[in-house]
Structure formats: structure tokens, C-alpha cells
Amino acid sequence: xxxxxxxxxxxxxxxxxxxxxxxxxxxxxxxxxxxxxxxxxxxxxxxxxxxxxxxxxxxxxxxxxxxxxxxxxxxxxxxxxxxxxxxxxxxxxxxxxxxxxxxxxxxxxxxxxxxxxxxxxxxxxxxxxxxxxxxxxxxxxxxxxxxxxxxxxxxxxxxxxxxxxxxxxxxxxxxxxxxxxxxxxxxxxxxxxxxxxxxxxxxxxxxxxxxxxxxxxxxxxxxxxxxxxxxxxxxxxxxxxxxxxxxxxxxxxxxxxxxxxxxxxxxxxxxxxxxxxxxxxxxxxxxxxxxxxxxxxxxxxxxxxxxxxxxxxxxxxxxxxxxxxxxxxxxxxxxxxxxxxxxxxxxxxxxxxxxxxxxxxxxxxxxxxxxxxxxxxxxxxxxxxxxxxxxxxxxxxxxxx
Length: 401
What we know:
Blueprint: H1 8-25, E1 29-30, H2 31-38, H3 42-55, E2 58-61, E3 76-79, E4 85-91, E5 95-102, E6 107-114, H4 122-140, E7 147-154, H5 171-174, H6 178-186, E8 190-194, H7 195-206, E9 215-219, E10 225-230, E11 233-234, H8 260-273, H9 279-284, H10 293-301, H11 305-329, E12 333-337, H12 341-344, H13 348-358, E13 364-367, H14 374-389
Parallel strand pairs: 4-7, 7-8, 9-12, 12-13
Antiparallel strand pairs: 1-3, 2-3, 4-5, 5-6, 9-10, 10-11
Helix pairs in contact: 1-3, 7-14, 8-10, 8-11, 10-11, 11-13
């Protein structure tokens, strides 16, 4: 490997990256371990480790002494996961969630804040986001200078360049100029991505789809959106539109992008207006005809026949959506995520049964266990991928306040 580079500078970077990759993948390693893994000479390995320690990316750790061992134990090195931190943001229409993670992906701080009613004006939304970021940093006990990158998921189509695709009704709610704000005032790269695509990254990293190379994740709360991983690669398309659900209006038995939570709320409220006096009415109370999705699911669990019929309609409708995704992308696993994920378990039997009618080799269908942290977890993964790619160009600032 020493002879593979054409210049001393490139050679040095190649060796640094080779050793760093080994240290990131193992709890710790001795010089001999690194020599065997990289093919570098002992002198080069020790020099590289000392360089990584000086840069803050590695540290020397105690090496256990073996019984009857003579002399000093071998030097042992490990990756310094607290050399820097990343942020994962989930900027929705009503809520922003922020995670702070170290370079091993461990969450060390978080925050959540709500936007003004009806979303708020751009300036209000910018303020809520920046305040939520500051609250998460305070929760983690770190300064802005310790952050190396931030990832952000939004409920809108995003181009491959990280820009909000034009022509979307929701675009003004998310095109807030945060990239320049964070870059100029804090020196962070801000990577913007569609929320469903980040959900797919999160599931493949730490969810029920961990390690799965052919995976689809459908965010199914208020509106449907999907993220697709094919052969281990997140798909985007020419303008970031892969997985968008706008064409569902053309699908018989579906008709629009309404998600599970919205359908349960709309159809439950319609039943109340039509005079339904079963368990849904008992849970909602006598003074309103507005049913929440949660109460409709609770009523179905209690055996309310109207609520059960609503869930069956939702399941049959969702099965058509799953069949469409299966036909186009042929995933091995489809994960249902979003705000309704916990409740959506009740839909699995009917969805699976219906899906088997439409698809010759149907994928497995599961429900996400990452809850409301699904999208921000994917945003953390996006930021970590950037840091790992640009590690030697970044200057860590591990000091805590």
C-alpha cells in the first residue's frame, strides 16, 4: 500500500485513511493488528497512529498485561468517537426534532420544538429550528465548534444537489436558507434530504431493516412518501423524485397521498357525523365529531365494528400502495414508519393478505420500531457518512463546555 500513491501527500493521506478505517471498525487495535490489516510497515503504522492522535481522531488506550509477560505491553489504539459530533434534524410541518450524536453514532443530546400554528412564517420557522439546535447542543453539553456536519430531513422533494425541488406547495415551509445560515455562522455543512429517504437510511442502519440491501420505507402518517434502497444504494432519480407518491391519484382504490393517520381521522370523524354511537363516540365524547387516529385505533382494538371496518379499508388501500412499490422496485422488505407506526401493527395481517393477491413474490412487511426518531436518526446517518468521507479534511474540536 505504501507504494500505491504518487506523491508524499497522497501517500500520507492514503495511509491515514487505511489505519483510520481499521480503528473505526474495531474496539481497539495494536500496532501488530494494524500492520496485518493494512499491509503497512511497523514504522509507518506507529507514525500514522501518532499523527491521528495529534489530529484528535485516535487515542492510545491501556493494553492488558498478560500473565508472565516481560517488558512493556504493546501500544493499543482506538478511534476517538468524541473527536467531533454530528446533528440530525427532522423539520416537519408542525415539529422539529434534533439529535446530537458522536462519531460512533451514539446519541448524546436531543430536543424537540413546535412551529407556530399553521407552520408559521419563514423567519419564525428559522428561529424555531435554530433554537431547537441550540437546545440539543446544550443537552449534549457541547459547543457549536464541536459539530462537524448536520443532516436535515424535510417533508418535500429534494434534488440530488440538496435543494428543495421547485413547484411544490410545501416548498416555502422548508426552503428557509438554513444551509447558508449554518455554514456562515457556525461553519457546518448542512446536508438536506427528503424525510422518507432518510427514514430508509435509518431503517437500514438501526431499524428492523438493519443490513438489508433491498429495502423500501413508507412514511404513512399524514401523507405517504417512500425511500428506496436498491442493492445497498439510496435511490434519488434525476430530480430527487424516486419514491414520491404524487401519482397515487392515478391508482384505482387509492386516489391520493393521504396517509394512515389522516384516513383514520377523516373516516372516523365521518362515522361520528353519520350518527355512529359505538366505542369511537365513547372515546371522543359527546361534544365533537372530530376523531383522532389514535382513538379510532383504540376503538378497533376494543371491538368497535365501525372502527374495525375503517382499519380494514385502510389496510386494503395500503396494500395497493405496497403492491405498486413492490412492482416498481422489488424490495425484499417494506417497512411502515412515521407517527402511526406503533398503531400500524394492527394493519399488518390484512395488508399482508391483500398484498399476496397482487404480487407473485411479495416482500416481507414490517413496522418501524424507531418511532418519532426515525427521520432524525437517518439524518444522523447522512451526516456521519459525510464525515467519514471527508474525515481527514475536517478539524475536530472535541472540547466540551
